[in-house]
Amino acid sequence: MELVPMVEVIDTFAEAFPMTAARAIITADTAEWAKIAARTMSGYATSVIACDAEAGIERIYPPGETPDGRPGVSVLVFAFSRDALEKALANRVGQCVMTCPTTACYNGLSLGEKSISVGGRLRYFGDGWQISKRLEGKRYWRIPVMDGEFTCEERFGTVKGVAGGNLILLGSEPASTLTATEAVVNAMRSCPEIIMPFPGGIARSGSKVGSKYKKLRASTNTLFTPTLRGLVDDPPPESVRCIYEIVVDGLTLAAVENAMAVGARAACAQPIIRLTAGNYGGNLGPFHIRLHEVLAKTP
Amino acid sequence: MGFRLVWRGITTLTVEGDQLAPERLAALSLAEVSRLPILAGNFSAELGDLFSVAESPGQPSDMLTLEGDLRSVQSIGREMSRGTIVVRGDVGPYLGVGMSGGSISVHGSALSWAGAENQGGRIEISGDAGPFLGASLSGSRLGMREGVIVVHGSTGHDVGRRMRRGLIAIGGGVGDYCGNGMIAGSILVFGEAGRYAGLGMKRGTIGLFGSGHVTVLPTFIATGRYRFPFLALYARKLKEWGFPVAREVSSLEWERYNGDLAERGQGELLVAPGSGR
Lengths: 299, 277
Known about the structure:
The structure holds two protein chains of two kinds. Chain A is of the alpha+beta class. Chain A is built from six helices and 17 strands. In chain A, strand 13 and strand 14 form a beta hairpin. In chain A, helix 1 packs across helix 2 and helix 4 packs across helix 5. The longest helix of chain A is centred in the N-terminal third of the chain and has 16 residues. Chain A is elongated, with a radius of gyration of 21 Å. By secondary structure, chain B is mainly beta. Chain B is built from five helices and 17 strands. In chain B, the strands form three sheets. A 13-stranded mixed beta sheet of chain B has the order 5-1-6-8-9-10-11-12-13-14-17-16-15. Chain B has a two-stranded parallel ribbon with strand order 2-7. The termini of chain B are far apart. Classes of the chains: A alpha+beta, B mainly beta. At the A-B interface, strand 7 and strand 9 of A face helix 4 of B.
């Protein structure tokens, strides 16, 4: 039996902040095309530091659970304001979903006053040949395209979500640390209402706020950069050669806390040295998710 | 508490039933409801003369139950905006005409003009419906403008004439001139279709999903076979309302004809592959 070393869990917190979120349910004739559209739509959407939104695949829907009964994938999209979210979502659905063979796109949240227009913006692509269908207060646009038509719901609901939940895994050497982080991400993928927007759910270039260069809003997180040992204050322990971060955005604080709890428990079973979380001294976000507290919660 | 009205069957004259709407009875006492004036032919009668009126304990105050052979009673639920009417028996013409909200459920059949010029709400008829279902009234420019009409049986001619918006779903067959002059909206027919479907339609959807041959007007042009995701949205909603929709409707390809090219030509006829022309 392989021995698993004890993992040191630092008594600290992840500092999360509110972001406006929407859920898009993408369907297609096959599950593969729905996934392709969802992956394309959530590309270049890792961090609002330099992207218009943070986005990722939330879950895969079997046929029968989607609005039109076809295989589907839901994508969560987060932005700093409703206006920014509307622009980002309409652009992404227009360029990445409408262009993808056989797809349709539906709202996945309840509609309230704070909804945004998506199909309502994309309909103009139909150049006057678009068809509107209204059913039970919801409007759908059928936009003629080269393989038939693209169906898109006019309005998408939004919620005040929570972004910036995170776990930071410190390991002794890169290969095993990456494998361990992959295992943690896989465990967290089962959690509802969250996404992990970085590539494969993992970020290797964790950032701090600001830079010596005035134009930069963020720069490499020197506290977690092993190669800067001896050059900066508070470097990681000598035994640490590799660090990965998992960032979690969720529709609710509870969803982010739950995902972090699942991830933290999974991390404690991995051959890593230390588990911690990133924060900015409590000055950036109102949500402080403490590692020890989420670990103490009953799974 | 709501009211239960049982038809006494004492006259064959046409009875104006436009008082028979929940919102017009909700604030009245049992005695006041019984004394409501109602026209039978040229004669003025009281509601209690024609119906046995009783309160319905346990039913909400905005619910009205009608029972009996009401084929001589017209305009039941006319222009109603809220509440529920349940009819156990057949009803006369102009059922729910101009209604804007609430629901009417008929466990029987309806004569002509049911749901004509509706602006909202839902009508469900378990039997058949006569001609001009959801149509424009004579001399009027617009038919049904919003809402839902579901007929489990068959219907007559001119269903959805000049319809502007909304959904009509018909489980059985439909007569000639279905969607005549249709401006927009959706008519879904799951039985046999009559002739001249979509004549003069400008926009909107007529789905003729029955297995029989469909005579498509020469002013419609075939565009090919496609699968339409929006049909699944309708199918799901219709199932929620208890209307049986075969799974194939949302999963199969349908042949689409654009027309009527004599008008704007932005309407569509959807028919089973190979069954049209």
